[in-house]
Design goal:
single chain, 209 residues
């Protein structure tokens, strides 16, 4: 659980579609609108978790090579995220876009679509989640649900913090850019570490338990 929580934390702290949209929406339209948008993101997490848990065991049991392919794809994506986090001129979510004011139903829908179309979330569930499942510990489906629920908890709580503090953080980081650099380098290091660990892991594909 700790491993998936750390990976989830590193990914949610890396600027991406979810963070950029939620921060921008919160600064533009207020905390309530940001939280409504976050509820859509939460549903998107749940959709990915459900689809992944229903398919993981069958796919990896019948196509073992898929496990290796997804593992390497996940490692490559984590390395790409790590580089984009630490490289000069990296994107900051706290330099938000201007957004038009929207009604609650559209805010929810936009949050949902932003999550469903977010490649970070797809990679997380399809290739990172399996790395933390141990067939010796019991049913693969139950482990998947537990690990996915941990990711949803971490992702939702951290994004909620961003929503509630977006305006203040944007102002602080504009005045103290050193802290933005610290966040970027710490996050990039964590993602890089897990990318290397994943790429060098020699465990075999999962089998149903």
């Amino acid at each position: 659980m700790i491993g998936i929580a750390l990976v989830s934390l590193g990914m949610v702290l890396t600027p991406g579609p979810n963070m950029i949209y939620l921060v921008s929406r919160s600064i533009t339209q207020g905390r309530r609108s940001g939280l409504i948008s976050l509820s859509g993101v939460f549903l998107g997490f749940t959709v990915y978790l459900t689809a992944t848990c229903l398919g993981l065991t069958a796919v990896f049991a019948y196509v073992p090579a898929a496990y290796t392919a997804l593992k390497l794809a996940g490692a490559a994506y984590l390395l790409w995220m790590a580089w984009n986090t630490v490289k000069p001129g990296g994107i900051s979510a706290f330099q938000p876009r201007d957004l038009a004011v929207e009604r609650p139903r559209k805010l929810f829908t936009m949050g949902l679509l932003t999550c469903l179309l977010n490649p970070k979330i797809a990679i997380l569930y399809l290739s990172l989640l399996p790395q933390f499942i141990d067939p010796a510990m019991g049913h693969v489906l139950l482990q998947s649900l537990a690990l996915g629920s941990t990711q949803i908890l971490v992702g939702t709580l951290v994004n909620a913090v961003f929503v509630l503090t977006a305006a203040g953080l944007a102002d602080f980081l504009a005045r103290k850019p050193i802290w933005l650099r610290v966040q970027r380098y710490v996050t990039g290091t964590v993602l890089g570490f897990f990318a290397v660990s994943m790429a060098t892991d020699r465990s075999k594909a999962l089998v149903s338990a």
